[in-house]
Design goal:
This protein is an alpha/beta fold and about 350 residues long. The protein has a domain at about 5-195 and about 225-255 and about 295-315: Rossmann fold (3-Layer(aba) Sandwich). It contains 13 helices and 12 strands. The radius of gyration is 20 Å and the shape is globular. The protein starts with a strand and ends with a helix.
C-alpha cells in the first residue's frame, strides 16, 4: 500500500490547515475531497497549486460511488475525516443540512471505507486507520466549577450541530466494535487561527473591528471556551494518526479557558497596537451586546491529559502567542478576507447578529 492519505473536508478551516501542514512536513501524498460549501474555500489551498503530492477532488462524502472510486484508485493507508457542517447558529436555523452531512454523510463514508478495508491484504489492514475529527460540544456544557471534559464524559449535546456530531461519533465507534474498522476519534476545543471563515467569534471580531463595524457579543459575554490554535490541533491529529491506540478517543485542548468578552478585549488591545484606528480611539469602543442565541452552552473545557500522557503531545502555542499570530495573518491577508466576506455572507451576519 502506498503512504497516500485521504482527507475529507480539506478545503475548510481546520482541514486546509491540516493539508497545508501535512504537505509541508510529510512526504506522503494527500487526496483532498471537499464539497466546497460556503466554508470550503479552494483559495485556502493556493500554496499547493501544481504540487504533485496534493490532489484535490470536489465532491461529497455522501457520494458513495465517488468515494469508492477514490479509494480504489489511490489506495490510501488512512482516511482523516474533517468533513462536517460546524456552525451552531446555522444548525439552529437549518438543522437538515447538519443531519445530512454529519450523520448520513459520515455513515456513507464509513460504509465505503468498510468495504475498502475488507478488501485489503493482512499487512495493509494492520496499518490502515480511519481518524474521525469531532468536537468537545458533544459533551454538553459545564458549570463554572466542574472539571474539564474527559474522554469518559457522557454525551449531552445541546444543539442540532453537537447532536449531529455526537451521532457521527457513535457511528464511528460502532463500526469499530461491530466490523473491526480501525478507527480513532479526536474531540477538540474551539479552534482559531489562519483561514478561519469570518462567522466564528475571533475572525468575525477582527474583521468587524477593521471595518469599523460593531463587535457583537452574545448575552453577557461570559461564555467560557477553551481555545486551541489550529496548527497545534493539526500536529495533534498527526500524532494520533501515528501512535493513537485503535478504537480510542483523544481530547485535544489548548489549556486556554477564557470568557468570550476577555477574548474580544484581547483582540481589541492587540489591534490597537498592530493596526490603530485612524481616529485614535480604542477598538473596544465598537463592542456591542446582542441577544443571546437559543441553547447557548455556558462553558466548555477540555482535559487533554490523556493525549499528553499516552502520546506525548501538548500545544506549542499559548493563547497570547497564537492570537497575535492570528491577528497578524488577517492583517496580512485582507484580500482573502474580502473574497470570503462577499455575497450571502453579509445577509448571514445581519440575520444572526442583529441587536433586536
Amino acid at each position: 500500500m502506498k503512504n497516500t492519505i485521504l482527507v475529507t473536508g480539506g478545503a475548510g478551516f481546520i482541514g486546509s490547515n491540516f493539508v497545508l501542514d501535512w504537505v509541508a512536513s510529510e512526504v506522503a501524498p494527500v487526496i483532498n475531497l471537499d464539497k466546497l460549501t460556503y466554508a470550503g474555500n479552494p483559495q485556502n489551498l493556493a500554496p499547493l497549486e501544481g504540487n504533485p503530492r496534493h490532489i484535490f477532488v470536489r465532491g461529497d462524502i455522501g457520494d458513495s460511488a465517488l468515494v469508492d472510486k477514490i479509494l480504489a484508485e489511490h489506495q490510501p493507508r488512512a482516511v482523516v475525516n474533517f468533513a462536517a457542517e460546524s456552525h451552531v447558529d446555522r444548525s439552529i436555523h437549518g438543522p437538515g443540512e447538519f443531519i445530512q452531512t454529519n450523520i448520513v454523510g459520515t455513515f456513507n463514508l464509513l460504509e465505503s471505507v468498510r468495504a475498502y478495508f475488507g478488501g485489503l491484504d493482512d499487512e495493509s489492514k494492520k496499518t490502515f486507520r480511519f481518524l474521525h475529527v469531532s468536537t468537545d460540544e458533544v459533551y454538553g456544557t459545564l458549570a463554572p466549577n466542574d472539571p474539564p471534559f474527559r474522554e469518559t464524559n457522557p454525551f449531552e449535546p445541546n444543539s442540532p450541530y453537537s447532536a449531529s456530531k455526537a451521532a457521527s461519533d457513535h457511528l464511528v465507534r460502532a463500526y469499530h466494535h461491530t466490523y473491526g474498522l480501525p478507527v480513532l476519534t479526536t474531540n477538540c476545543s474551539n479552534n482559531y487561527g489562519p483561514l478561519h471563515f469570518p462567522e466564528k467569534l475571533i475572525p468575525l471580531v477582527i474583521h468587524n473591528a477593521l471595518a469599523g463595524k460593531p463587535l457583537p457579543i452574545y448575552g453577557d459575554g461570559q461564555q467560557v471556551r477553551d481555545w486551541l490554535y489550529v496548527r497545534d490541533h493539526c500536529s495533534a491529529i498527526r500524532r494520533v494518526l501515528v501512535a493513537g491506540r485503535v478504537g480510542e478517543t483523544y481530547n485535544i485542548g489548548g489549556w486556554n479557558e477564557k470568557p468570550n468578552l476577555e477574548v474580544v478585549h484581547t483582540i481589541c488591545t492587540l489591534l490597537d497596537e498592530l493596526s490603530p484606528r485612524s481616529d485614535g480611539k480604542p477598538y473596544k469602543d465598537q463592542i456591542t451586546f446582542v441577544t443571546d442565541r437559543p441553547g447557548h452552552d455556558r462553558r466548555y473545557a477540555i482535559d487533554a491529559t490523556k493525549i499528553h500522557r499516552e502520546l506525548g503531545w501538548k500545544p506549542a502555542e499559548s493563547f497570547e502567542t497564537g492570537i497575535r499570530k492570528t491577528i497578524q495573518w488577517y492583517l496580512d491577508n485582507q484580500s482573502w478576507v474580502k473574497n470570503v466576506t462577499s455575497g450571502d455572507y453579509k445577509k448571514w451576519i445581519e440575520k444572526n447578529y442583529s441587536q433586536e
